[in-house]
User: Which sequence fits this backbone?
């Protein structure tokens, strides 16, 4: 991948788990963190769905 994984405050694909659609942000500012919140919520909802199916 052609990404600089040392850059701060930028949303990037995760260096190891990008193939699983993971993202990362080193030292995010409040604005960047707000941009991440929908992704966090989506991941949480997906995890709840998966857990329900296991029960």
Assistant:
């Amino acid at each position: 991948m052609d990404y600089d994984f040392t850059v701060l405050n930028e949303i990037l694909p995760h260096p190891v788990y990008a193939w699983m659609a993971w993202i990362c942000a080193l030292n995010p500012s409040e604005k960047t963190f707000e941009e991440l919140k929908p992704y966090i919520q989506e991941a949480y909802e997906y995890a709840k769905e998966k857990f329900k199916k296991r029960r």
Notes: The longest strand covers residues 12-13. The first helix runs from residue 30 to 54. The mean pLDDT is 95.
